[in-house]
Write a structure and sequence with these properties.
The complex is a heterodimer of chains A (about 400) and B (about 325). Chain A is an alpha+beta fold. Chain A contains twelve helices and five strands. The chains are: A alpha+beta (about 400), B mainly alpha (about 325).
Amino acid sequence: MARWLRRKPKEPEFDTTEGAPKEFVSRSQGEMIWRAFKRHRVGNVGTALILLFIFLAVFAEFIGPYSYGKQYRNYPYSPPSTVHFRDEDGSLSRPYIYRTERTLDRTTYKVTYVEDTSKKYYVRFFVRGEAEYTLFGFIPTNVHLFGAHAEDGSIAQLFLLGTDHLGRDLFSRCLIGSWVSLSVGPLVILCVFPIGIVLGGLSGYYGGGIDMFIQRACEVMLAIPALPILMAMGAALRGFGLSAGMVFLGMIVAFAITAWGGFARVIRGQVLAIREMDFVTSARAAGASDMRVIIRHITPNVTSYLIVNATLTIPGMMLTEAALSFLGYGIQEPMTSWGALLNAATNVGAIEQHPWILIPGVFIVVSVLAFNFMGDAVRDAVDPYSII
Amino acid sequence: MLTYIIRRTLYMIPLLLVVSLISFSLIKLMPGDYLTTARMNPQITEETLNQQIARYGLDRPFIVQYWFWLKNVVQGDFGTSFDTRMPVFKTLFFGSRLMWTVIIATTTLVLTWIIAIPIGIYSATHQYKPSDHVVTFFGFLGLSIPNFFFALVLLWLLVVIFRVGDYGLGVGGLLDTRYFDAPMSLAKIGNYLWHLWPIWVVIGTGGMAGLIRLMRGNLLDTLTLPYVQTARSKGLKERVVIYKHAVRNAINPLVTVLGLSLPGLVGGSVITAIVLNIPTVGRAYFAALQRQDEPVIMGGLLFFSLFLLIGNVIADFLLAWVDPRIRYD
C-alpha cells in the first residue's frame, strides 16, 4: 500500500518482548478510544492547555492579585509593569519592580509612566493583598499568589498585563473573564443536547406527523441567520437592565435557541438510520418497549456522535460569544469576558497607544485552539472507521 | 431538476414568513421603542407621529402590528427607516453596500477555494509529513482566531508596526480619501485592492481551515476505495490516479459546502466590516441595531435569512449538477 496511507504506529496489541507468551488482550470500546486519544499528540497538548485554563479559572481570584472591579484611578492605561531580574550593577537578583508615576508631557500631551528607582519592591508569593474573596465559594481569604512589597512593608501595584482606561488590572480581569469565556460553550451544549436529543429522537424514531412538525420547526430555525439574530437578542437583553448574571443566562438561552435546530436534524438522521438496523428489529421482536429500545439500543449508538459534536461545537460557541461581547451585545459590565475586554480596542489610536489591551485576544486564540485540538483528537479516537 | 428548484424556491416563502414573525416578536420584545424617543424630539410634530402610529398600527396589540407590517410588505412596502427617513432597503443598501457585500463574499469564496483545495490535496498526499503538520497547524490557527481580533491585529501591524501611513496608504474603509472623486484609473483599482486584501485574509482564513481539513479528509477516504486500488494496479501514474480518479470524487461533498458557506460569509463579514470600516449591509444592520431602528432591523434580518436560503438552494443545485448519481423527485 502506498506510503501516505500507512497508519500512525499503534501500540502493539500484545506483549512483543522476546519470549513473552503471545496472549491477546481484550479491550472495551472505552479503553480503545482512550488509547487512540492518547496517541494523538497535538490533542494531548490541547487537553493539557484546557486543564491549565480551567485551573486558572478556578483559582482566578487567588492568582489575580487584584479584584477585577477595583479601579486604580492613578493608573489609567498603565503599561505592564517591568519586572527586573538584574541589579543596577548587572548581577542577578530576586525579581523586583519599581513604583511608577504617571507623568504628562506638557508639549505633546503624551502620558508616560516613569519608574521611580529609589525603592525596590520585591515580588513575593502567597502574600496578603487588598482584594478579599472566598476561595471555592466558602473560604474567605485575602491571600494572593503574588504581590510586590518593599523591605519596609510598603506595597507597589504590580500590573502584569497593564491596566485599562479605569486603571483596572488587566491580568486579574482576564482571569475573571475566563469564567464566562470558558463556560459559555459547555453550558450551551448542556441546554442544546436535551432539546436536540428528545426532538431529534422523537422525529427519527416515530416519523409521521411528529417528524413532519419537528422538521418544519428545525427548518425555520436553520433559516434564521445566527449572528444577526444573536446581535438582536443581545440588544434586547441589554435593554432590560438585568444583572450581569441574568444577562449571561439570557445569552446561554439565546445561543441554545439558535443552535438546537441543526443539532436535532443530525440526531434525527442518525436515529433514522439506526432504527432500520437488525439489532433494533430483534430487540423489538424480543418484546422490548419503545422506551427501552430508545434508551438501551439507540442512544448508545448516538453517544459517540454527541461527544464529538460537543467538543467541536464549543470552540465555535466561544468565538461567537467573544464576537458578541466585543460588539457590546454580549456580557455586560461589571462582569467581563475576553471578548468584552477587547471592546476597549475598537480603534487604531487606542491600540497604538496602549497595545497591551490586545492581550485578552491571545487568551481567546490559545483556548479556542486548544479546544479545536482536543476536538480533533476526540473525533479521531471515537470514530472507529477514521483513517485521518 | 427544474421542478425541484422551483419547489425549493417556493418553499422559501412560508419559511420567510415564519422567520419574519419570529424577528418581529423579538424586535417588539426590545424594551422601549422608537416612539419614546420620537416624542421627545421637538422636530417631529404630533401630526407626523400620529401618521406613523396609524400607518404601522403602533398603538395596537402586537399581532395587529405584525398584520399591518405584513400587509404593507405584500404591497412591496417594507417601511421607512425611523432614522434616515428612507425606505428600509434603500437604507440597508445605501451607496453601493449591497454590491460590496456580494463582491466581498464572492471574491473571498473564490480565493479560499483556489488556495484551500490544492493545499488540502497536498496535505492528504503528504499525510503525517512535517509539511502536513505545518499546514494543519496553520489551518487550526486560522480556525481559532476570532475574525474581529485578527482584523484588530492586522490593523495594529499595518498602522503601528509597518507604518503604512508613511507610504500614503490608509487601512480600513475601501479607498483612501484622495481617490474618492478620482476617475477610475489603475492607481485607484490598486488602492481598492490594497484595502480589500486585509478583508480577504481575515474572512478567508476561518473558512479556509475548514475546507483544507475537509478536502484532506475526503481525499484520504477516497484513496482507500477499491477503484483507486484498481487504477493503481493498472499501472497508472500516481498523478493520474490522484487528480483524475480520486480528487474528482473527493471534491463532491465540498460543493455542498460552497453553497452553505455563502451566507456564512455574509454573516461572518459583519464584524470584520465593522472593525475595518467597510460599507456592507452587515454594518448598516449594526448601525440600525444601535439606534433601535425597528423597520431596518426587520429588513436586515429578512435579507440575511433570504441570503441563507438562497445559499442552501444553490448548494443543492450544485451538488446535483456535479454528482449525477443524486436524484431528486
